[in-house]
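[Discussion] Sanity-checking designs against the backbone

I'm trying to build intuition for which residues belong where. Below is a C-alpha cell string of 295 positions. I'd appreciate it if someone posts a full sequence so I can compare it with mine line by line.
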C-alpha cells in the first residue's frame, strides 16, 4: 500500500482463522489503521490480494457488509438523536440479512443492557460522557451481530471500569465465535483480550504469536529474584541467561542463596525490544516465526 510515493505497507501477509481474537499493535504511523481500512473495504490497496469472509472487500456487496461490524476511532452521527433512536435506525438495515443461524439485528434494549447503556437509552447523544459515547460506538459495531468485528482502539479515553466492561463484552462476543481484529496501543488490553498479537512496524509484521510466545521469543532479559538466607535481603537481577547467572551465584555462595523466582520480561519490554530492533533495521526473520512453547 502506498500513499502517493510513500510506501506504507510492504509485503504484509497474514491469515486469521474464524473465531480468533487478534490484536494489532505497532508504533504510531506503522500502518495499523491503513491495514484495517483495507480489510474493511474502505480503502483500496495499491497492490496485493485481500480476502475477507471469502470476498474481496472492495468489491463485496451489501450481504457481506451486513456480516462485518466496525468500531472506528471516532465518527460523527446525529448528535441530537436519542441513544436508542440511533441504534434502532442502524438495526433496521440488518433486518433483511437475518439468517436461520443468525438472528439480526441484536434487539436494541438487550444490546444497551449488554454494553452498560440501559440507563442512557433516552439520552441525547451529544449529552453522553466520553465513556458512554465509546460504549455506544461498540454497540453500533455489534448491532448487526457481525461474524467479524473490527475495532480501532476501542477503549481509548475510558476509565478502568469502562475498559474492563468493554473487555468483558469483547470476551462474550468472542465466545459467540465472532472473529475480532482490534488495534490498540495498550499491551495489557492486548494480553487480556487477544488470542494472538501481531506487531506491525516499518510496513510489515515483525512479530506474530500469543502474548506468552512474544514474551519468550523477543525478550532478551529475564528477571531473577533471590534471597540471601543470612540477611533475608532480596535481590532482583536482570539477565539474558538466568541459568548461567544462577549457577554462578549458587557456586560462589553455596547454601546462602535461595531462589525465589525467575520470570521472563513483561510483554511491554518484549514489545519495545522487538520494535526497537526492527526500526534499527535488524533482521528479525529468524525469530519472527515463534514456536509453540510448553507451558
Ligand atoms: N490518507 C493518507 N494520505 C497520505 N498518507 C497517509 C494517509 N493515511 C495515512 N497515511 C500515512 O501512512 C502511514 C500509516 O498510517 P496509519 O494511520 O495506517 O498508521 P497507524 O499505525 O494506524 O498509526 P497510529 O497508531 O498513529 O494511529 C503514516 O505515515 C501516515 O502518515
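Best answer:
Here's mine. Compare freely.
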Amino acid at each position: 500500500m502506498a500513499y502517493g510515493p510513500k510506501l506504507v505497507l510492504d509485503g504484509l501477509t497474514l491469515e486469521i482463522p474464524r473465531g480468533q481474537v487478534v490484536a494489532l499493535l505497532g508504533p504510531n504511523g506503522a500502518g495499523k489503521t491503513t491495514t484495517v481500512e483495507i480489510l474493511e473495504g474502505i480503502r483500496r490497496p495499491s497492490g496485493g490480494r485481500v480476502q475477507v469472509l471469502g470476498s474481496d472487500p472492495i468489491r463485496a456487496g451489501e450481504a457481506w457488509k451486513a456480516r462485518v461490524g466496525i468500531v472506528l476511532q471516532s465518527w460523527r452521527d446525529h448528535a441530537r438523536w436519542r441513544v436508542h433512536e440511533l441504534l434502532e435506525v442502524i438495526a433496521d438495515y440488518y433486518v433483511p440479512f437475518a439468517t436461520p443461524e443468525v438472528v439480526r439485528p441484536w434487539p436494541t434494549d438487550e444490546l444497551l443492557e449488554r454494553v452498560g447503556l440501559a440507563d442512557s437509552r433516552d439520552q441525547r447523544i451529544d449529552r453522553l460522557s466520553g465513556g458512554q459515547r465509546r460504549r455506544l460506538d461498540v454497540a453500533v459495531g455489534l448491532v448487526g451481530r457481525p461474524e467479524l468485528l473490527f475495532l480501532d482502539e476501542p477503549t481509548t479515553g475510558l476509565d478502568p471500569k469502562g475498559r474492563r466492561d468493554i473487555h468483558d463484552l469483547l470476551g462474550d462476543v468472542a465466545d459467540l465465535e465472532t472473529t475480532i481484529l482490534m488495534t490498540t496501543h495498550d499491551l495489557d488490553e492486548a494480553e487480556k483480550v487477544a488470542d494472538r498479537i501481531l506487531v506491525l512496524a516499518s510496513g510489515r509484521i515483525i512479530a506474530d504469536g500469543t502474548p506468552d510466545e512474544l514474551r519468550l521469543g523477543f525478550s532478551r532479559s529475564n528477571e531473577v529474584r533471590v534471597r540471601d538466607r543470612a540477611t533475608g535481603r532480596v535481590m532482583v537481577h536482570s539477565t539474558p541467561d538466568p541459568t548461567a547467572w544462577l549457577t554462578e551465584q549458587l557456586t560462589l555462595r553455596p547454601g546462602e542463596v535461595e531462589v525465589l523466582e525467575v520470570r521472563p520480561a513483561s510483554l511491554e519490554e518484549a514489545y519495545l525490544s522487538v520494535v526497537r530492533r526492527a526500526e534499527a533495521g535488524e533482521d528479525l526473520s529468524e525469530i519472527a516465526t515463534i514456536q509453540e512453547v510448553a507451558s
